[in-house]
Amino acid sequence: MKQGDRRVVVLAGGISSRMRVPLADHEHAVDVELLKQADERTKGMIGVGAGGRPFLDYLFYNIKKSGIDDVVIVIGEHDDALRQYYGMHDRNNPFHGLRISYAIQKIPPGRRKPLGTADALVQALTLREDWKGGDFIVCNSDNLYSVRAYRLLLQSEARNALIDYDRSGLEFDERRIVQFGITCKDAEGYLLEILEKPPLDQLDRLRGSDGSLRVSMNIFRLNYDLVLPFLQECPLHPVRQEKELVVAVTNMVKAVPRSLKVLPLSEHVPDLTYKEDIGSVQEYLRKHFAELNW
Asked: Which superfamily, per CATH, for 3-288?
């Protein structure tokens, strides 16, 4: 990836509906203040770090350490907490050497939720037309991807790529792991499709030559000009009624074969989706991020 293409879109425009679900049991002791934040804030702004540092700080720390400096956060139209913390300007707020800009994802009339991750990325690319002709990375705001993952994408010779995670390296219970889409590749490591919840009797055929099952955690490197039409034309999911990035990417690789390379990686990716995740994320941050040396 060229020096000028060291940029990332962080998707934080959703309404965090799963985080607002009450704790399922009493095994997960969570601070009352953090539970309140989980009900009121976007997930990335929950203060799970030392001294109440928000989760997004740790994601941005890894982004900075990987060599990226241009960041676009897709936010909801009424998300003032993010702006108050990272800067009130629409473009190029300075934050520890990063330049942070905001793309707004509005909720269309007649809907209670935004149109989904494909629509969120359209808003970011519409804001940054200066990225045309280049590449960028896009990822979730509620997963803590490693410096290694970002660098794999930055250093790849492929203009479109995804991190292909070994399921056995993810420290989640089986109920969570089966939610992740399984990647289906050709013999040379080009993506064919991402399969949601395939039947158990199909899993063996999806295993790699090493016997592993690999999944997407929604972190991609994409070429602006190639992916944009597929994002714009992405159909609504028949059940969730959202335009999903994974569907747009799958449609892209079906229309343009051998256009997206998979990059295998085996490591855990902390996930802040439910209230039950708060304690484990806090413990992970205490263990791996004693301090941030920006």
From this structure: Spore Coat Polysaccharide Biosynthesis Protein SpsA; Chain A (3.90.550.10)
CA distance 58 to 83: 17
Radius of gyration over alpha carbons of the chain, in Å?
18
Angle at Cα 83 formed by Cα 142 and Cα 218, nearest 5°?
A: 25
CA–CA dist 53, 266 (Å, integer) = 27
- CA proximity to 127, closest of 7, 282, 46: 7
Q: Whose CA is closest to 121, among 2, 246, 15?
A: 246
pLDDT digits (tens, 9 = 90+) for 99-152: 999 999 999 999 988 999 999 999 999 999 999 999 999 999 999 999 999 999
What are the start-end ranges of the H helices in the chain? 32-40, 55-66, 80-86, 117-127, 147-155, 174-177, 203-206, 224-232, 245-255, 277-288
Quick check: 162 and 222 in contact, CB under 8 A?
no
- Note the pLDDT tens digit of each residue in 199-217: 777 777 788 778 789 999 9
- State the distance between the two ends of the chain, measured CA to CA, in whole angstroms: 23
Domain residue spans of the chain:
3-288
Burial 181-206 (b: 16+ CB within 10 A, else e): bbbbbeeebbbbbbbeeeeeeeeeee
